[in-house]
Amino acid sequence: MRLKRTLALAFTSALVLGAAPLAARAEVAAADPIDAAMRTCLARSDMSSTAGQVQCMETARIGWKTALDNAWRQLQPELPPARRKQWEKSQAAWQASRDAEKQLLAAVFATTRGTMYVLAEADMQLQPVRDRALVLRSAVADASAGDSPHTKRLRACAADARCEHAMFDMNRYYRRLQAKMPLHSRATLTRAQKAWTAYLNAATPLVDERGRIDIIGARVATLKRLSETAGNH
Questions:
Q1: What top-level branch of life does the organism fall under (predicted)?
Q2: What pTM did the predictor assign?
Q3: Could you give the number of structural domains in the chain?
Q4: Which of 24, 79, 213, 216 sits CB 3.0–4.6 Å from 20 for a disulfide?
């Protein structure tokens, strides 16, 4: 039982410290109550079963979804009409990517066996919701402070060495995961990647070049983790 709690805490510690976008890490350092409540839940002896640990993460995911929805409602009235349309497009694309990603996670973890992979899947269901909530919170703070929105046209990714390198890594892990996926599941990966690409395109007008790198870097981390997970027993 102690091993399960250790694994779950390791997954969520990696999430909090390593997976959040750069723009959100200052807020993460403040130890959000949702994260603190999840850690407390994971450490409880009566939640030491796999089901209990997953329940702790699912409760946190629901908490972050509520935070996401609240931040989205707060953001909309703060934006000028043109900017609001860009954010609406980005949010719709994020949700579509999230829906496609759920199917991909199910397909990848269906190829695994073992308690640690049950916990890992729960962690990966939580992470994108948490990250998006933090992005929206940051946008609300910027809008409320009257910060000027990003308007500078970004260089093409091919002209930005960091972006080009990140895309190279992403494509490398995508191909590695594709090779490890069962043939009948590869279309799920293709759909998820297309949905993510649509999200990147919708989000790019709202960020600077570092923000674009953060989005791509998060995708690299996801595909790397899934490529290392698929087929494990």
A1: Bacteria
A2: 0.87
A3: 1
A4: 24
- Phi, psi of 131, rounded to the nearest 5 degrees: -60, -45
The 3-state secondary structure of the chain, one letter per residue: CHHHHHHHHHHHHHHHHHHCCHHHHHHHCCCCHHHHHHHHHHHCHHHCCHHHHHHHHHHHHHHHHHHHHHHHHHHHHHCCHHHHHHHHHHHHHHHHHHHHHHHHHHHHHCCCCCHHHHHHHHHHHHHHHHHHHHHHHHHHHHHHCCCCCCCCCCCCHHHCHHHHHHHHHHHHHHHHHHHHCCHHHHHHHHHHHHHHHHHHHHHHHHCCHHHHHHHHHHHHHHHHHHHHHCCCC
Distances in Å between the alpha carbon of 197 and those of 58, 73, 89, 90?
Answer: 27, 25, 13, 11
The amino acid at residue 127 is: Q
Domain that holds residue 156: 2-229
Q: How far is Cα of residue 148 from the mean position of the Cα atoms in its chain?
A: 26
